[in-house]
Task: structure prediction
Amino acid sequence: MRVFKKFNYMSKIRAAITGVNGYLPEYILTNDELSKMVDTSDDWIMTRIGIKERRILKGEGKGTSDIAVEAIKGLLAKTNTKPEDIDLLVCATVTPDMQFPATANVISDKVGIKNAFSFDINAGCSGFLFALVTASKYVESGTHKKVLVVGAEKMSSIVDYTDRATCPIFGDGAGAVLLEPTYDELGIIDSILKTDGVGRIHLHQKAGGSIKPSSFETIEAREHFIYQEGQQVFKWAVSKMADVSEEIMERNHLKSEDIAWLVPHQANMRIIEATAKRMKLDKEKVMVNIQKLGNTTAATLPLCLTEWEPLLKKGDNIILTAFGAGFTWGSIYLKWAYDYKK
Ligand code: UT7
Result:
């Protein structure tokens, strides 16, 4: 007769990140190059946003799935995982390869993931948070054991490089994590996700959807690019990211000294600083790579985790937080599940 260990039998299954990997396209678009395209300057961009350069995917016929595939292939190699062992893939993106089918399906095909189902999540810059929480529920229920979550964007495909108010902000990139079950007090402990559709008027893409299908007029009016009312988005982002991060700390009885790392969405250095200040966190505990990568939308959080992976220790309390189009926002509290091995 099979004997269950009492501990395992009684415990809750949690979803833990057991590997992370990122991919960045090679081309670096600097503030100096942008200054030749629109009326802007390195000084303005650094002061108002905090971005020095961003990566751009070049090449005919290349899309978001191609960046995601590179991140996932590297992750599978790093974690010694075979594509056929994956049983779910969730892709967070606002720049899908096509309107349909889902980019997650394309990625699975390109990577050789054959025994899984896959789907996309569109939650703007909060996409990775929403995808990670959704995926974690499949792991926690006991039905899925190896789950990939990828945040991937080719933002350069929807940026208007004649609009100085938006073109300095965004960059391309992808980050992916592997989620696996654990009976230990590790992995995703708590999450808060929020949406409020009233915010859609401040940040959206005007044409190309069912309300306004693509036409010569929509192209002429440059309506296939990001439309953003920066100040409105800024106001919401500053208060909501801080509110939700404070709320998740309070309800988990976490003080600032209990937190090892804050992983904030990389939209604007001033928003990151305001969130860290409200959480009373020293800047040494805040992951920031916005200077090098800009805002890669759904990819910012896993790209931060990838860069900081060597410093993360098993048991570290980590808060992830983001705000984006929708509006969407949220926070995840997780305990890091492994020590880094080269
Ligand atoms: O990740 C998704 C969520 N998105 C965000 O979180 C973005 C939130 N918003 C922001 O980060 C900021 O609002 C921006 C970075 C987008 C803009 O910064 P801002 O401090 O809100 O600037 P502003 O829009 O109020 O513009 C101030 C001035 C304006 O000139 P006037 O009207 O005062 O003469 C703009 O025309 O700066 C001008 N401006 C620029 N000047 C030089 C706007 N963009 C530029 C530019 N270079 N690139």
Observations:
- Residues 321 and 331 are 4 Å apart (CA to CA).
- The first helix runs from residue 6 to 10.
- Residues 40, 44-45, 48-49, 125, 164-165, 168, 230-231, 233-234, 237, 267-268, 271, 295, 324 surround oxa(dethia)-CoA (CB under 6 Å).
- The chain has a mean pLDDT of 96.
